[in-house]
Amino acid sequence: MSEKIELEEKKEHKHSHHHDPKEKKRQLNRISRIIGHLEYVKRMIEEDVDCAEVLIQISASKSALNGLGKEIINEHVTHCITHAVENNDTEALKEFQTAIEKFL
Fold this sequence. Notes:
CATH topology: Methane Monooxygenase Hydroxylase, Chain G, domain 1
Strand content: under 5%
């Protein structure tokens, strides 16, 4: 299955800029909606709802999560990667490449 990143192991932002607070709030709101949707899927399973209906809702959850990932990629390219290129930060570019490979 997919890798789980422990919070203790997470990397701090090494860049000199900060993410837009409005974008961060928007992303956190999207995550909250996705969590709510997954809780609904959990209830569906607990209540023995038809498997086809559960699968449709799982598909919708996956789609929402992928959309969030694409949004984060776009923001990262717009801000972090642009900054990395301007400062010849090859480490940041390699990290981004690795992250994209795992996302895809």
